[in-house]
Amino acid sequence: MANDVSINKLYGFNNEHQTEALPGALPIGQFSPQRCPYGLYAEQFSTSAFTRPRHQNRRTWTYRIRPSIAMGDFSKIDKGHVRSGPIIDADCPPNVMRWDALPLPTEPTDFIDGLTTIAANGDVRAQTGIGIHIYVANKTMGSRSFYSADGELLFIPQLGAFSAITEMGKLHINPGQILVIPRGIKFKIEPTDGPIRGYICENYGSPMELAERGPAGANGFANQRDFEYPHARFEDTEGQHQVIAKFCGEFYQATQNHSPFDVVAWVGNSAPYKYDLSRFNVLSTVSFDHPDPSIFTVLTSPSADAGVANVDFVIFPPRWMVAENTFRPPWYHRNVMSEFMGLIEGTYDAKEKGFSPGGFSLHNCMTPHGPEADIFDKATHGELKPQRYENTMAFMLESRYVIGPTKFALNALQRQRNYLACWGDLKKHFNGQP
Ligand code: FE2
Known about the structure:
CATH topology of the largest domain: Jelly Rolls
CATH superfamily of the largest domain: Jelly Rolls
Bound molecules: fe (ii) ion
Number of domains: 2
CATH class of the largest domain: Mainly Beta
Number of strands: 29
Strand content: 35-45%
Structural class: mainly beta
């Protein structure tokens, strides 16, 4: 378990955090005084409607050197391989699909240029659904910053560490941790230790929440205390800076003559946060059968229908498996929800071959899937002693909307055209005898 707890860090999912980089910069007792300390501008940042119920209300007050509107007009620029839902220029066959990892860049590439969309669903203009991207980068963004007005960005790093410089402060992220940047927050990504690669879920819907615990009680699964927010940090620098915005699926660029990272103090609950996946407290069966994978949900973006997620972020971490008289791998299934999977490290327990770190798979609504043939044979004949699943961290993005692959993904060299063959050896065992 990672052990970097510091009492000086800001911990607590969805807390009303408050932080100032200069003493006295944060107004006390009110949000919008006639004159702010240090001559700062007050600016409210809202990622929920003003009128959302309190437990779903997200907003932050920022105290900054200049308000965000102190910038030039946006002009459309090339969006490279980035796409948004709905995907209308590619087929969406109901086949199982799987891909190898996308290659690392050979030319100097920053985070924006290294973004590729694999799939998307919903409608970016209607604020429903998700985009699923792969990022690769090997250099910093320099004087460029990025934000998505289309969705909240959930980073799932697979390779390499980076710093995220954001309007609310700086967070350092390693593989095995996740980063969530709210819709609209400007940031830049700085690789700190060689090239980086990972997955992004761009959540067009409601901001991510922690999954409910139900009868499990007040503790367990993802605990609020393990989510870390940044301290305020500002740059009082002038010089040309390019802001690149993703808006309605397109990229736009504007220039301003100062750093956008000029927030000296902030208070609120809408801010970037990080979480170490090793902190996830796994609760599972100690008797028999296999619970639904929803027990591994870290974050969920609810839709208007109770219990039907716009997207769930689910992990399959190291854990003990002790179920008796049970087929222990994930069962064969067909699901109304659509499932995109990735692998952060190690091996996933339903697939021993062909699903490697950085790779990804897509099993859409009602597309059958389950363990490959070899895994079935082992699981039905092995001795059921307690077993520790080690060296594994897979994840799933599960959505109520069919996930459409992009033209890039369908035609990619990394697509495994023979994926179905891993089930080709499933034999008939039925012989009419009980
Ligand atoms: Fe599944």
